[in-house]
Amino acid sequence: MHLNFNEMSLAQEIEKRRTFGIISHPDAGKTTLTEKLLLFGGAIQKAGAVKSSKIDMHARSDWMEIEKQRGISVATSVMAFEYEGTKINLLDTPGHQDFAEDTYRTLTAVDSVIMVVDCVKGVEIQTEKLMEVCRMRSTPVISFINKLDREGKDPYDLLDEIEGKLNIEVHPLSWPIGMGKSFQGVYSLYDKSLRLFKGGQQLHEEATKFSDINSPELEKIIGERYAQQLREDVEMLTELYGPLNVDDYLSGKVAPVFFGSAVNNFGVKELLDTFLKISPNPKPRKLDDELVEPTDKEFSGFVFKIHANMDPKHRNRIAFLRICSGKFERGSNYYHTRQDKKFRISQATAFMAQDKETIDEAYPGDIIGLYDTGNFKIGDTLTNGRKGVYRGIPAFSPEIFREVINKDAMKTKQLEKGLNQLMDEGVAQLFNFELGSRKAVGVVGQLQFEVIQYRLKHEYGASVEFAPMQLYKACWISSKDPKKLNEFINSKQRHIARDKDGKLVFMAESKAWLQMVQDNFPDIQFHFTSEF
Ligand code: G4P
After folding, report:
1. C-alpha to C-alpha distance for 103 and 30, rounded to whole angstroms
2. Given ligand 1 and candidates 24, 27, 119, which is best to mutate, with the most ligand atoms within 8 Å of its CB?
3. What is the per-residue pLDDT for 64?
4. ipTM of the predicted structure?
5. 366 phi and psi, to 5 degrees?
């Protein structure tokens, strides 16, 4: 097949792009690592410039403060930079667990993930949850075990913990020598070189190559004790793991592991260099049931995040769109598949590290910001005319439910509008019961109720309260047999609701009861995510 010039440059643009996210439990070092990566890319000049993803400790239970800090973060929700000829799009993921859904959705827009683990604390709960989302999409994961300058867990135990808790095979590509006060450095199993760490910082000389680790040079550098230990470790690791099979990483089966210390900028460059060598560039994605290649010359993309309140006086929002195929050109008309309408996109923003700038064109893997006055919802697809939606942005069953109580009947319309818009932004999920006019709002974290209440009041003038509801899970239901589904709905009418897209949901009151209902209705499938 011969490619014409335009097709060739599209393929080249795709080839040089890497779109990824960093995930971690709060405090493991995500912000610090982000910052070091940006420093390498020359995107920022000094440490301390990345405030975005970090929510201050003292603000963690104060959502107003969090919102303020999130406000600052728009520009840094996506940090794009160039490094050695590669265009890197780093997507920020909120660390606060009450906004976990935001993070889940952001993960649908990346092609791979770097997971930061604190060597003192090991694998923590938020990392476990985020890894589940990665596994759903077989997202390739590289793990960076951080804070080696502290006395942490034994490295072998850390590998076991990752395998055990995160259900993924590991493959160490570097190995620490000592730890905490006696941390000497890391040995790269990937390119057989040693990097030394002395007196709290990286020694800036180049890594020492060791084609033969048995060379007596090793003793001279790290002393007899550590040299002996390292040789034993390397022998064991080489026997255990062998060379990395990159395909196993790309299919999400194996996670390469690096050790280092982000705050000391130690081990970060190796991580970045290897990441560039092995991480995937934009891959084909499913639009309905059709696999769309990024090189397909017809433009397409989907909205995975909406950021509101850019300016509280005007209700303006930015819709974040991930480009999946073709070339985006500002000023073109694109087809909004849900609304069945063409839109002229005259304003689009690229996110270059900390600045936003208007862009004229963008390519698969890139994230662009579209100014929005309420046309977009999370999950919306834009194309050149092709119908359908990009799959893979499921809603997950929320964990806490409350009934919405309207406190001002005169503002019912505003309430409806406000609720719908907040749901479009993905702040929470709304379930409308089929019987009566009850509405349940479901969230991942308690703070989201405060966000909704405050924003409804200040942006829409509506007053609400939330009443407790005895609900355990929202289960999306389906059946191969429409008659059986109808029978089920009729017999459980009081517990049937619709989600924002009109999909049928069974609102289960308790775990035990759900189990009983599942046993009694074997022809009904109960799903914990909206895509099945
Ligand atoms: P997060 O985004 O994952 O929440 O974590 P963040 O990078 O903010 O790091 C959390 C804390 O861990 C910070 O300290 C940071 O300096 C520290 N840290 C990051 N990497 C390392 C490392 O390699 N070694 C050690 N010892 N500490 C590390 P803090 O006291 O909370 O904040 P700060 O005042 O130091 O910024």
Report:
1. 13
2. 27
3. 58
4. 0.97
5. -75, 155
